[in-house]
Design a protein that fits this description.
With 90 residues, the chain is an alpha+beta fold. The protein has four helices and five strands; from the N terminus they run E-E-H-E-E-H-H-E-H. Strand 3 and strand 4 form a beta hairpin.
Length: 90
Amino acid sequence: MIILRLEEEGSVIAVIRDLQLTKKVETIPLVVIKKDMTRETYDRSKIESGVFRSCHKRPVPVEEINACVEDIENVIFNKGVKEISSSEIE
């Protein structure tokens, strides 16, 4: 939860609450089941490199690529599962 607070000088300060939940999400390992049925720990850099490779000859800003990777991660982690098939990520 983010709470915005207005200070005396007129500046806005964001106070982040519930950091314990954020830490819990980061510590839950996600396992990716590959096509050959081997399992490996989820690695964000593999998604990033795949998206960068597919956009390297196109005029796509880095910010949009990063937003795309964030969206993909949100979909994956919002499923609330401990294991996911690599075909679901593609």
